[in-house]
Amino acid sequence: MRKFMLALAATVAFVGTAAAADPVRISVGSYNLNNLPFPVAKGLGLYEKEGLDVTVENFASGGSKTLQALVAGSTDIAVGFYDHTIQMQSQNKAVIAFVQLARNSGLVLAGGKSSTFDPMKPETIKGAKIGITSPGSSSDFFVRYYLQRHGLSADDVSLIGVGSGSAAVAALEQGKVDLLVNYDPAATFIEAKGVGKILIDARSDDGAKAIYGGIYPTSVLYATQSYIEDNPETVQKVTNATVKALEWMNSHSAEEIVEMLPKEFISGDHDTYVKAVENAKAIFSKDGRISDEDIKTPLAVLKSFNEKVAAAKIDLSKTYTNEFVDKVPAVAAN
């Protein structure tokens, strides 16, 4: 009997150990819709199904704060923008993207009711107060690249960090900024609420090509090279769940996607938010793969105004990997 009880105890201990969830800290750079596949995966319970215990931290001020957290070691994986991996390589830090969420920019430039900026006359942007999510963010890059392409500089405008979502829309509505560069849902809210008008739209492929000269990949999952090397099984589980979320999103309506989201992710009224998701659907990756051709566009943009990137010899092959996406089981989420 004693041997039986010892064996039983050992079996229970083994089962308990086997069932223990794998902890992982994931930080997200604001709840703009470029990052939508992450909360969809959360809402569908896909991370839990992979045996993960995910702790989430949201930086509403933008992706640059998420990057800081990753480099500082206070988070394991970041939901942020691909161009950060290029910046980090120019600073001799290895940060690797391993799942693509948004294959295109999703950014718009909107003008408030009193704005005098005319995109057909780029010089009319001089003196404008322009709202961006945060300094060093991709919305910041958007403005700087636009200015550079038209013979202007950041000294010709005032760049003001206003976050994203409803806070960003409020800044435009209250006249704290004249122009706003932001993502959905803010982009949709601006026109739905009659706050302003979208003047430049990079949500479509054609719009992105007009602004950047090509497709501009944005939201990805990235981690330090050391974390990926030390935790390949955890990274694979996160990748499995996220790619299944992308597959699920591709086969479901905007309404169904919103119904699956955690409540804290939804801002504004329900119908307008559904419309925002519908407007943003075209930017999402279908399979999580990172294109070696498309990532040349963020590099070109950064080189145009970022001195460290321009001076560095950037090896794009070291900024991303499709290794984990290639190993995702070919079974769509239910």
Automatic annotation (TrEMBL):
<protein>
    <submittedName>
        <fullName>Putative aliphatic sulfonates-binding protein</fullName>
    </submittedName>
</protein>
<dbReference type="GO" id="GO:0042918">
    <property type="term" value="P:alkanesulfonate transmembrane transport"/>
</dbReference>
<keyword id="KW-0732">Signal</keyword>
<dbReference type="Pfam" id="PF13379">
    <property type="entry name" value="NMT1_2"/>
</dbReference>
<dbReference type="GO" id="GO:0042597">
    <property type="term" value="C:periplasmic space"/>
</dbReference>
<feature type="signal peptide">
    <location>
        <begin position="1"/>
        <end position="20"/>
    </location>
</feature>
<comment type="similarity">
    <text>Belongs to the bacterial solute-binding protein SsuA/TauA family.</text>
</comment>
